[in-house]
Specification:
Elements: H1 3-16, H2 22-46, H3 68-88, H4 93-96, H5 99-102, H6 116-125, H7 128-148, H8 160-169, H9 176-186, H10 190-195, H11 200-222, H12 230-244, H13 246-259, H14 265-269, H15 273-282
Helix pairs in contact: 1-2, 2-7, 2-11, 2-13, 3-7, 3-11, 12-13, 12-15
Length: about 280
């Protein structure tokens, strides 16, 4: 697990456990979520659509045995369901915003039930830009929920009515690979849900996304997977990170993306590695 994210998560958990430091803990949680979402956004902005349905690690039961598209979807469908159907007892962002149609999703569930073939098929059809917009809408909504929480809310538990509401939503597949989620959530209080899914769950799957995209880059270099002209942008960003660090890259990408009228970063950086590196450096 990423050391910085892990340390922030541990510190956050310790802070929210005491009333005197609860507010500080929530602020740290929001900071951690911001850091993690920046990583997701960076991947979406810098990798081509075909990268999002690749499964470089193949089938298996580890978090990285997945696609980039599925990983994004899974994190935020779970969060949306837990925040709205379970805790707030209101409409999910997914339903309210019509995101099934906008993101061209074949499913309304968390995706746990998908095997390798189904996961790839789902990922190929998903509109990644729309999916990212959905993810951000869910994050923003949950952040507001977290800001309103009081220390006294942490011990709140759930009952049979909450179970019925979750099952009625049909957002958790009845398949055994997914059905356990309902009991898992119901077995926790609000404090437990802050950890899973509002913090540690993010870390687990964002780390998996990093492993997947790094593996894709390795495969591109060896010729097993072609990113085409996009390979240059990946190499340029790798060089920039080596010189200045990941956080500095994230600071540069967002304003550069807006400045260039939301062109793909691959188009902005061009085909020459040295010129591409200069472009990033000149926008620091």
């Amino acid at each position: 697990m990423d050391k910085e994210w892990s340390e922030k998560n541990k510190r956050m958990q310790a802070l929210i456990a005491k009333e005197a430091t609860f507010a500080e803990g929530i602020n740290l949680l929001l900071e951690l979520r911001k850091d993690l979402f920046e990583q997701i956004t960076s991947i979406v902005k810098t990798f081509p659509p075909e990268a999002f349905w690749q499964m470089p690690f193949g089938d298996g039961d580890q978090n990285h045995n997945a696609t980039l598209a599925w990983s994004m979807w899974h994190i935020f469908r779970i969060e949306d369901i837990v925040a709205h159907t379970l805790i707030l007892k209101d409409k999910q962002i997914f339903v309210e915003g019509g995101w099934k149609q906008k993101a061209k999703s074949a499913i309304i569930t968390t995706g746990n039930e998908l095997d390798e073939k189904a996961m790839v098929a789902f990922s190929k059809k998903l509109d990644i830009k729309a999916a990212l917009a959905y993810c951000k809408a869910v994050m923003d909504s949950t952040n507001e929920l977290l800001k309103k929480l009081q220390f006294s809310d942490l011990k709140k538990k759930f009952d049979a009515a909450d179970r019925e509401r979750l099952l009625k939503s049909k957002c958790v597949s009845a398949d055994q690979s997914a059905a356990w989620l309902v009991d898992f959530w119901l077995g926790k209080n609000i404090k437990g849900l802050i950890q899973m899914p509002f913090s540690r769950h993010w870390i687990m799957h964002v780390e998996a996304m990093r492993r997947i995209k790094n593996k894709l880059c390795q495969q591109a270099k060896k010729g097993f997977y072609s990113l085409g002209k996009d390979t240059n942008a990946v190499r340029v960003m790798a060089l920039f990170i080596k010189k200045y660090g990941k956080k500095e890259l994230l600071k540069v990408l967002d304003p550069l993306h807006k400045k260039k009228d939301f062109q793909k970063i691959q188009e902005v950086l061009g085909d020459d590695i040295e010129e591409g590196l200069k472009i990033l450096e000149n926008n620091r």
